[in-house]
Amino acid sequence: MKRYSGFGLVKHAMSHHENWERQWRNPTPKKQYDVIIVGGGGHGLATAYYLAKVHGITNVAVIEKGWLGGGNTARNTTIVRSNYLWDEAAALFEHSMKLWEGLSQDLNYNVMFSQRGVLNLGHTLQDMRDIQRRVNANRLNGIDGEVLDAKGVQDIVPILDCSKNARYPVMGASWQPRAGVARHDAVAWGYARAADSMGVDLLQNTEVTGFKIRDGRVHGVHTNRGDIEAKTVGCVAAGNSGVLAKMAGFKLPLESHPLQALVSEPLKPILDTVVMSNHVHGYVSQSDKGDLVIGAGIDGYVGYGQRGSYTTIEHTLQAIVEMFPIFSRVRMNRQWGGIVDTCPDASPIISATPVKGMFFNCGWGTGGFKAIPGSGHVFAATLAKNEAHPIAAPFSIDRFNSGALVDEHGAAGVAH
Amino acid sequence: MFHIHCPYCDEYREEEEFHPRGQAHLARPATPDTTTDDEWGGYLFFRDNERGIHHELWVHSVGCRKFFNITRNTATYEIHETYKMGERPSVTAENLPDSQHQSGVQAATSGWQTVGARPESASLNQEEQV
User: Fold this and answer.
1) Which CATH number among 3.30.70.100, 3.40.50.300, 3.30.2270.10, 3.40.50.2300 corresponds to the domain B3-129?
2) Per-residue pLDDT tens over the stretch A32-58
3) Could you read off the pLDDT of A238-282 as tens digits, one per residue?
4) What's the CA gap between A322 and A332, in Å, rounded?
5) In terms of DSSP bridges, do strands A358-362 and A35-38 run parallel, antiparallel, or are they unpaired?
6) Which residues, other chains included, contact A205 with Cβ-Cβ below 8 Å and sequence gap of 6+?
7) Which of A303, A344, A401 sits opposite B77 (nearest CB)?
8) N or C: which end of chain B has fewer CB within 10 A?
9) What is the pLDDT of residue B125?
10) Do B76 and A305 touch (CB under 8 A)?
11) Contact A253 B104 (CB under 8 A)
């Protein structure tokens, strides 16, 4: 792999940028690997990268039925933050945040991580009490956070309607300055390129059709390109995790829902931070290209169609216009839906399964993007050592039988 | 948007009048005192999450406010039937012969362009020939 640099950019400019090498190979599947990762999205690619880099396991295949980063990695609102309430979740998301902060250098790939801060608005007294509690919990966990009043919010976002005339007046917000956004495709591509350069095989257009399981132990996978053997299989398939679990013969505590987002036509810079509101149910940021990136809620029913319902969009845009009257005549350009696997306690599952050698990393629900580096890092450790990484341990499937849930509905909410 | 037939009102109404309440036909453990943690966990949290035919509970929340069941394909979003509480579904994944509906995978031969609701007219889905 040739390193990317400013000098390289100038050098390639001489040849009209026609001689850049491919970012990753397109290998044919081998018969046997040490570890197979099912799912080539951000989490799967990050897992492969950290397996190779941290644990020296390079005989790894990432199996993806479509193309790399073409699922929810390409369909989210790219918000990165770590202001979660409970210690377990805070540890996981803050671990991720720390990796984000050095990610571009680590991968030699500009993931355009921009720490522009995230506001979580409060519109009621109860909202403000919850915000206070969460910020205090964050600070005890070493995560930056501040409670702002309405004036403090207005100072940061002048175009936000903080008047008393709003249907749900803004009373304040929590503010995490280190939070921000990143370029979603670059994250997948950066991990893919770096993993490939260490010898990981990225198998695109390869669909897992079943698992080879003998005596309660996984021995490999069946795919549309033949059987591939491995003693360790990690499934990182987001919305389709339930379908994979069914192939392997067990159930997961997940439900898959469509979650949609939309972007507007490009505008001149107008919003330099991320504004989220759980109460009125909408969140918005502005991309470097100038589009407003708006996130909606999930559809309440189980669905695998990668599109959402119009009532949900309408509801979200009502909230956005309520918060930002100035956006009322902005036209929307594109709208899309991804399938998110939601857990009953709004926390992910990083866990061993009833099948020996098979591990699942799923249940990220509506907020998996921010966790890509942390999730990949702890899941790689779990796969390499065959036992849960300390940060991943509380997120075992067993918690749904023991009752030790990590209830993050407040910090996760709709607005992830 | 779904057009849902409420079996109690006996009318087709728009989706916004209804609210989904998850998987149907979940039986609460009959003997709570002897039910194990695993069984409780299964009852409370573990769901079929089917890609394909799915039986689910809905409530006509701003209509008659009654609960009823829907059999729906979660990949194509086609609603096969609605039926009252206490009744059993007449359409199931087993008795539906069409394999395309069972697997819930988008079939290129069907002429549908997207995974989603079946269009009222097949011509709506034809791309214009240039």
Assistant:
1) 3.30.2270.10
2) 999 999 999 999 999 999 999 999 999
3) 989 999 999 999 999 999 999 999 999 999 999 999 999 988 888
4) 16
5) unpaired
6) A64, A65, A66, A67
7) A303
8) C
9) 44
10) yes
11) no
- In chain A, residues with a C-beta closer than 8 Å to the C-beta of B19 are 300
Residue A230 phi/psi, 5-degree rounding, is: -165, 145
Query: What letter represents residue A174's amino acid?
Result: S
**Beta bridge mates, A140:** none
Q: What distance in Å separates the CA atoms of residue A284 and residue A286, rounded to the nearest whole number?
A: 7
Count CB-CB contacts under 10 A for residue A243.
18
Chain B, residues 39-98, CB within 8 A of chain A, namely 40-42, 44-51, 54, 56, 72, 74-77
Residue stretches of chain B with pLDDT short of 70 = 97-130
Sign of CA dihedral A133, A277, A337, A186: negative
Quote the pLDDT of residue B95: 84
Instruction: Enter the ipTM.
Output: 0.87
- Contacts with A243 from chain B: Cβ below 8 Å: 51
What ranges in A220-264 are assigned the alpha helix state H?
241-248
Closest by alpha carbon to B60, among B68, B51, B50, B48? B68
pLDDT tens by residue, A207-228: 999 999 999 999 999 999 999 9
Q: Per-domain residue ranges for chain B? A: 3-129
The predicted structure's pLDDT at residue A181? 96
What single-letter amino acid sits at A175?
Answer: W
**Sheet of A146-149, strands arranged across:** A146-149, A172-176, A118-122, A274-277, A282-286, A291-298, A255-266, A332-342
